[in-house]
DUF3943 domain-containing protein (Vibrio alginolyticus), 152 residues
Amino acid sequence: YIMHPYFGGVYYTAARHAGYNEFESFLYSATMSTFFWEYRVEAFAEVPSWQDIFITPFFGAVVGEMMLTAEQDIVANGGEVLGSETAGDVSLFFLNPVGHIHHWVTDAWGGSAELKFNSSPWFGNQDVAKFAMDAGASYDSQFYGVELKVTF
């Protein structure tokens, strides 16, 4: 009951840092912890439990918002915890491990990664849209997609 809310909070803060609001971050945490992790990665080893499905996303959102607030407070304090930059660095890592790992990787390769939520059909690519429509594809006005852009 300790690590499940923590990792739900990690998912939640990753979404908050990506610009999502509280509810969207909760949905992201719930999706990642249940559908991605429990029903895909761990499904081979065990049947998802009530704790996996409920505790991780719901309590994770609460813990995640507290983690985000604590992280902002440490940053506002110059990165120090109890007057120590080392304690501040360690605390910031555990409060936002995804962000720290992301910065380590992008610093190592000198590039950047960008993840965008897109709700425009065909991602604004009208040539592809025209080709698909000419080929008889149906057009759905409700469209949601993810675009990943990695530069080196």
Remarks:
- The mean pLDDT is 81.
- Residues 69 and 131 are 48 Å apart (CA to CA).
- Strands lie at 112-118, 145-151.
- The helical segments are 3-17, 22-41, 50-76, 85-95, 97-109, 126-134.
